[in-house]
Every structure is written in structure tokens, then in C-alpha cells.
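The instructor's notes for this session suggest beginning with a concrete chain rather than abstract definitions. Hand out the sequence below and ask the class to guess, before any prediction is shown, which regions might be ordered.
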Amino acid sequence: VFRSFGGALGPNSDITVVTRWSGGVTGDGKVAGEDTVQYPLLVLSDPTSALAAAEKITLEPGEQVISHIFDLQKPLLPGSWMIRVVIDNVVIASHTFLILPLQFMQGRQISVKEARMLHRGPSKPYADADLSDISLHLNLGHGNSSAQEVSATHSHLYGPQLLKWIDELVARFYTVQDSCYIASQHVPECVRSFLDPCAKTTWSSWSPDPKSHLGEVNKNTGRITDPYRSGSGEFR
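After discussion, reveal the predicted structure:
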């Protein structure tokens, strides 16, 4: 079981958009009638401002939460993406989110070839639908040429340069809320006096995770020892 407290998304991630509605509201801000069913448009654009996808959701009257998963060609272009919510040709909400480049793959640092393949975006359009009308209305097309050049340069980054790019993106979207230290005899006393060990926090990837800890294998029974389970402490 893996933990992702940062909710990070990568080139091969699926994009799920969750919208919360307090009531039926039209694009001009007026409250819709009780029987009004609307079809807001969710519009995705990638870091080059290229239109990636546009899909409708069904909005019933009253409060509700709607979750929608986009079916996109992979890999997703790393960088700052934007989701827009459009009703009656009016953008009523927007939000930017981050698609992170990958530094590691299957427990090892990615190769130059893998970096170029994963960080250049898909070889085909993100979606098969005809988006020309939406593209014209929102002034979104095939992307900004300058941004495309920057993305092409980023797709060739590797090693320290790739790490620097990742750090720059993380700094734009995340802030440090807390710190901890990994227990070791080399940790100075001054650090120990100000910070908690990561193993004693609730948010660090180094903190205990009972649901993922399986324990040792009992050589006599062939079962895995579970120190968190009462009774026999073993299960198959």
C-alpha cells in the first residue's frame, strides 16, 4: 500500500476532476430553476496552453459533488496544467495543478531515453474529439510556440538538470509545512533538539504504516507474522 500525502501526479497518471456545487447556477450567475438540468463543460489545457480535452458533466439541481475521470493519451506533458469549468460559454471557475516529471522509474534513476519519452508529451492528440469550436471560443489552440520550445528543452533534461527542474516545479506548487530527521548516529544534537524523528510523525513516508507492514515469515508454519494483530499474530 503506497502513501501519497502530496497527491502528486506524473506523466502516466489519470486526471480526476472533482467539482462541488452548492446549487444550480447559470453562467451569468443567476440561480437556475428547480427543474433545470445543466451540462457544464470541463476544459483541460496542458503547460503549453494547448487544449487537451473538453467533456460535459450532468449537473442536477441542488447540492452535489461530481467526480469525472478524463481518458487521455499518455504520457502527459509535465508542468502546470489548467482545468476550466464552463457554463453557457462563461468560465465560472478554473484551477491549476502540477504534472511532475519523473526522476525515478521502478526504483532506479530513469535513463536519458526514458526521460525524453516520458517528458515530451503524447505522440497523438490527448483526445479524439473535435475541439475546434471550444478552442476558438476560449482562444486555446495547438499551444503557445514559446512554451512548446521550453517544453521541448525540458524533455531532454537528465540527472542534476532534471532534478533542478523538478525542484523548481515543486517550489511553485508546494510550501514546506513541517520538517523531520531520519534517525541516524550522524544526526547532530542541534537537529535532534529542534526536530522530531520522521518515524514519530504522522505525515512522513518514514513513519510506521501498519497496513503495509507484513513482518517476518514463521519458518515453522510458513505464515507471515503480523505484530499488529492479536491472537496468533499470523495469517496466510
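Then share the key points. DSSP finds five helices and twelve strands in the chain. The chain has a mean pLDDT of 85.
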